[in-house]
Specification:
348 residues; Rossmann fold; 2 domains; 7-stranded mixed beta sheet; 6-stranded parallel beta sheet; 25% helix
């Protein structure tokens, strides 16, 4: 079978390899890959910034945003041939820590977790992969190819889960306004889930042209291209997806009193001068919360699948802006101007 592999830590080492069909020891469910989503994490692994191959292996099969069709599954697994599924990316550590033991491997305390296509587990970027039943999530047939959005949506579902838990610290919590910074896949999905909760949603993104402004409006949200205009909204909730230090510095103290800032973007190292005393004063006196979130557990995948199933299909289709045949897979890692979500089609 063909598989997209990389030598972790070595830029330019990504290639299409021939691999044997995965061993049943890797998971009881055999899956034929349909689509593979590409995100910034994949691009950074391809660029050699990080990634870890499975123990004893030199190369890592890339890919963590999956959509596949079940080829074979045990009778008692809850899955049958023909089911469309996605694979859960992170698997619990072997100790396990208290979080992993409770099924919250996204909150692993000791860092011994593994991740498909990222850390010590081969990914889903092969014509076939195997997965354990507890690490598989069934996709509603009505979603079709849009099921490939479940993994990125699970990250956002976790963010909403945690924001709502934090909001519940108050006896009365009635957020009205959400600001999302960054109109990439994560930002759009955060805005979608905000609209599904009945919030007044605003999206900051510097792109004035291309598909993004129309997609924002199509969601019933308001686009903003100037960060200061966005800050002036004083949102109750801010989901930050750019990872841009200049945006984050403004976001820290821009929420309304008792507001919540969730950081989902990952930043490159950069020095920014901040008055920590003023920042501390503002956070304390405003009862504000700032937290970061990454990854997702099975419950978040299920919440993500439900959110996508409820969304307008025509709007969701607009998030997938480019489909690259497997034989031309390298083109998926070259960013184009109007890209939102790029997927590799294993059927072509």
């Amino acid at each position: 079978m063909r598989a997209i592999t990389v030598l972790p830590g070595l830029a330019g080492s990504v290639r299409l390899d021939e691999r044997p069909t995965p061993n049943p020891a890797e998971g009881a469910i055999l899956v034929r890959t349909l689509l593979l989503g590409v995100c910034g994490t994949d691009a950074e692994i391809v660029s050699g910034y990080y990634g870890a191959a499975p123990p004893g292996a030199e190369r890592l099969v890339l890919g963590h945003e999956s959509l596949g069709e079940v080829v074979e599954a045990p009778p008692d697994s809850g899955f049958v041939q023909g089911d469309h599924i996605v694979g859960v990316v992170r698997r619990p550590d072997p100790v396990p820590c208290p979080a992993c033991a409770a099924g919250e491997w996204d909150m692993c305390r000791n860092g011994l977790y593994t991740e498909h296509g990222i850390k010590e587990l081969d990914g889903f970027g092969a014509e076939y992969f195997r997965v354990a039943p507890e690490a598989a999530v069934k996709v509603e047939p009505s979603l079709g190819d849009l099921g490939v959005l479940i993994e990125p949506a699970s990250i956002v579902a976790k963010a909403w889960d945690h924001m709502e838990r934090i909001g519940a610290r108050a006896k009365v919590w009635q957020p009205r306004r959400l600001l999302v910074s960054g109109a990439g896949p994560i930002g759009f999905l955060a805005a979608l889930m905000g609209r599904q909760r009945g919030l007044d949603v605003h999206v900051f993104d510097r792109n004035r042209d291309g598909p993004k402004p129309d997609l924002i409006r199509g969601l019933g949200a308001t686009p903003h291209h100037d960060i200061d205009d966005a800050v002036a909204l004083a949102p109750d909730l801010w989901v930050e997806c750019t990872g841009a230090p200049a945006v984050i510095a403004k976001a820290f103290t821009a929420t309304a009193p008792a507001g919540i800032l969730c950081l989902l973007g990952v930043s490159a190292p950069m020095r920014v001068e901040i008055d920590l005393g003023a920042l501390n004063r503002d956070l304390v006196l405003g009862n504000r919360v700032v937290f970061g979130a990454v990854n997702a557990n099975r419950d978040h995948y299920l919440s993500a699948a439900a959110a996508l199933a409820q969304a307008d299909r025509d709007w969701l289709v607009g998030l997938i802006t480019r489909r690259v045949p497997l034989r031309h897979f390298a083109a998926a890692f070259r960013r184009e101007a109007d890209d939102i979500k790029v997927v590799i089609d294993f059927r072509k």
